[in-house]
Amino acid sequence: MKNKLHSIMLAAAVISAAPLFAQGGGLEIKGGVGSVKAANDKAGFDAGIAYAYKIERFFAFVPEINFNWINFDQCTNSPCRTQTVGGLTSTLTTTRNHYTLPLMLNLRFIVPMGTEDTPAVQPYVTLGAGYAWSFFEAKTPAYTDSVTSTPVPASTVSDSAAGFMYQGMVGLAFNLGMLTEGSASTTNILLEGGYRGGEVEKSGFKFDMSGYVLRVGAAFNF
Fold first, then answer.
1. How many domains does one find in the chain?
2. What region holds the Outer membrane protein beta-barrel domain (predicted)?
3. pLDDT in tens, 139-163
């Protein structure tokens, strides 16, 4: 618990000090899909809110809060077998929900594009590290065991875990003004993809939260 508190305090201190060194910034809102190995490599909704503090022309500091939600069904029994559920015989599955909140501190390299201050298409590379909190929930319906004919009540199991995360992203920022009118605007459309890795841990059990991330979004510069 002490390590978690120290990580949160350090992140808060870095984020609060960032505006002192910034030359400008922009709010970013992104959404798309992301996969997680601990969820059998299933993909689900992935979103992020970030603020890019521009340190100088080609570098920015980008604190970011992400959210990943994965919902899927898997066989309750191993090996997978049929049970009687609600009077019907079918494969018994457990519905799982995985919610993950990664707080990331990123450094971004803005790829030079000639002499243009605001190119129509701006490539960038983002590298970051941080801390994530994951919440797991598994729901199994009431069923009758096909072997013993014993009724089994419905059950819900939930737990949480936390741990270190890292990520690497490549992206493109499309300046709407340059694309439509030939003059720079404060709004950019973002397209980015990459890899987020790391493990969360609870009571000695570790879960691999690594997977790909693909998102689109918008940036509003100030």
1. 1
2. 9-196
3. 887 777 766 677 778 788 888 999 9
